[in-house]
Amino acid sequence: MTKQTLPATWCCGRFLFDFSKRKKPLVMGILNATPDSFSDGGKFRTVSDAVAQAEHMIAAGVDLIDIGGESTRPGAEPVSLQEELDRVLPVIEALKDCGTALSIDTYKAETMRQALQAGVDCVNDIWALRQAGAVDAVIEHEESKQAGTKQAPCGIILMHMQRDPQTMQFDPHYEDVIAQVMLFLQERAELLKEKGIAPNRIAIDPGFGFGKSLEHNLSMLAHFERFSELGHAVLAGISRKSMLGKLTGRDTNERVAPSIAAAILAADRGARIIRVHDVQETVDALKIWEAVQV
Q1: For residue 46, what is the domain's CATH number?
Q2: Less Cβ around it within 10 Å: N or C end of the chain?
Q3: Catalytic residue set
Q4: Is the dihedral of CA 86, 90, 95, 97 positive or negative?
Q5: Secondary structure letter of residue 28 according to DSSP
Q6: How confident is the model at residue 91 (pLDDT cuts 50, 70, 90)?
């Protein structure tokens, strides 16, 4: 696997994030418009509650808001397309002019299409665009831009997951978790680039907790800098996850401190995007981290 040069920018719809002018990673705030997400399910089901939470994150310094309408926790049951759209589209409509980049957390091609049309800047897909029509959805968006519409080319986040949310934690196995996750992400990114997607639109996520044991997760965090060798911005999504509970014995809503510790470790190892529930605390911690970088 050839080591590649990390891009200086990430093109994310209406926003161009220039990593050459900033040291700290982008903070992506999680906004779950779902009843059953593992950490905050049900808290932001109404549009007004979701908007209030988004405004709180914006005031705290969030760079990107990730809107999801379907839980992907281990064992989660899928929801219908219409139910997902009913959950996320009103939130996108309410936030599209908030001045902060918006992401749609989905694997459904039609949700991607409608969310992009509604104004989101990024597609964040746990299936790495492997579901039917997903690649076409982002390519069609690119073609609409080239045809002269006001839509900007979306950012794309490709995540690694072993199996699916219903079965991913049933005895996950790897010969070499780092090498296998890197190979998968490289292949998915290369596919998009072959189809004309600019490399600086693509970010990658090794998928902590998605078909990984505690040992696999710890190995990925310890060697997180390896993922940057693929030449794309790397996202770390560890916030409040079960691996932190196993290490600390803390319940989901008591994992703020472990989540921040993991975020700082990931930042030290080259993460360009940190996906979190606790935006204000993470932003503050990264300010301290940034102040001592040389």
Answers
A1: 3.20.20.20
A2: C
A3: 241, 275
A4: positive
A5: E
A6: very high
Q: Does a structural domain hold residue 4? A: no
Q: How many domains does the chain have?
A: 1
Task: Find the farthest-apart pair of alpha carbons in the chain and give their distance in angstroms, rounded.
Answer: 54
Q: Is this structure's pTM higher than 0.90?
A: yes
pLDDT at 149 over 60: no
| Residue 237 per-residue DSSP state | -
220-233: average pLDDT:
97
Q: Using CA atoms, how far apart are residues 84 and 181, in angstroms rounded to an integer?
A: 28
Asked, for residue 206, whether it belongs to a domain, the answer is yes
**In terms of residues, how long is the chain?**
294
The DSSP element (H or E) to which 188 belongs, if any, is helix 177-194
Residue-number span of the structural domain to which 120 is assigned: 9-291
Q: Across-strand partners of 205?
A: 159
| Integer angstrom CA distances of residue 212 from 119, 142, 204, 228, 259 | 33, 33, 17, 20, 18
Q: Is residue 2 part of a domain?
A: no
Whole-number Å distance between alpha carbons of 227 and 7: 13
- Does some domain include residue 158? yes
Q: pLDDT digits over 237-268, tens only?
A: 999 999 999 999 999 999 999 999 999 999 99
User: Which residues touch 205 (CB under 8 Å, ≥6 apart)?
Assistant: 124, 157, 158, 159, 160, 234, 235, 236, 237, 275
The DSSP element (H or E) to which 85 belongs, if any, is helix 81-95
171: confidence class by pLDDT, cuts 50, 70, 90: confident
